[in-house]
Amino acid sequence: MPVKVRRRDFLKMVGAGGVAATLLGIAPPIIRYIVPPVLRGEMPRSQLVWEDCSPVKASELEPNTHYLFYYPLVDTINVVLKLVTPSGKPIRIPEMRVPTQMDPAYEPPAWLDAELSEEEIKRLENFSKGSFYTYPPGVGPDGNIVAYNLICQHLGCPYPALRYYPPGTPIATNPPEIGANGGVLHCLCHGSAYDPSRGAIVLTPPTVRPQPAVKLEWDPNTDYLYAVDMVGPTINGKVCNTCGKTVGDKVVVAVNREPEKKTC
Ligand code: FES
């Protein structure tokens, strides 16, 4: 026997169905707004290019000069440096083990020599807390081109608070021998300093972690440079180094300022 539905009940059912359909339609964007999606991507392989989109060549880089670029995320700023001593001698950067975190009691040596002595390595190991990671060698014809993230590992001050100072630049908070060889990465916020010629190891506190390094590749046939990976601690303020919008296959480089955010 057919069930009779009164007109009023029918209209109520239609109304309830409409409300449910509307809620289902608007719920996903509201949830996405409250809980933003975390985009996780592969680490990009990105060629370094100038703002006119022409390739950056290793031979074009001036020594001890700030070249800035974003990698691996569109909002994570880095510096690429071609390091030389005050007399102009290229500082060949070897592969090395860098402690992921230092004991706050650690006092670094002056770091004047190109090679770490066995004794210094022992000292580092005694003061390091936890693990070491392998820092890649410098690239380019002289093995002296390196790149580091410029968001401070202490409390996250970004460039220009954290920036590179060439050898001989006086910095009030640093002993004069620090950075005498290859300069320093120094943060104005609270005075942390890192050694760019040694994997951005900690030179002065309050930071206890080194700056993450961008792994570079150099093509000896074309002289072109590529950013291919990150090593060291996770970029300050990020859940992971690829959590967010990653850069494309070309990243724009600018001298002494943040580059244009453009696509080549
Ligand atoms: S944020 Fe750089 S030293 Fe504190």
Radius of gyration: 25 Å
Structural class comes to: alpha+beta
The CATH class name of the largest domain reads: Mainly Beta
Largest sheet: 4 strands, mixed
* pLDDT < 50 stretches: 28-40, 110-114
Count of helices? Answer: 2
**What is the 3D form?**
globular
| N→C terminal distance | 72 Å
Write the CATH homologous superfamily of the largest domain: Rieske [2Fe-2S] iron-sulphur domain
Q: What is the typical, i.e. mean, pLDDT?
A: 82
Order of strands across the widest beta sheet? 11-12-1-13
According to CATH, the fold-level topology of the largest domain is Rieske Iron-sulfur Protein
Helix content: 10-25%
CATH architecture of the largest domain: 3-layer Sandwich
The SSE string, one letter per element, is HEEEEHEEEEEEEEEE
Return the domain count.
Answer: 2
Bound molecules: FE2/S2 (inorganic) cluster
Tell me the number of strands. Answer: 14
β-strand percent reads 15-25%
Explain this structure to me?
- This protein starts with 6 loop residues before the first helix and ends in a 9-residue tail after the last strand.
- The protein is globular, with a radius of gyration of 25 Å.
- It has helices at 7-34, 118-127; strands at residues 46-49, 67-70, 77-82, 96-99, 132-135, 145-149, 162-165, 184-187, 193-195, 201-204, 213-218, 225-231, 250-252, 254-255.
- Helices cover 14% and strands 23% of the residues.
- The chain folds into two domains: 1-37; 46-255, 3-layer Sandwich (Rieske Iron-sulfur Protein), CATH 2.102.10.10.
- A hairpin with a 6-residue loop joins strand 11 and strand 12 (225-231).
- The chain is α+β, with helices and mostly antiparallel strands and 264 residues long.
- The site of FE2/S2 (inorganic) cluster has 12 residues, from loops.
- The site of FE2/S2 (inorganic) cluster (FES) has 12 residues, from loops.
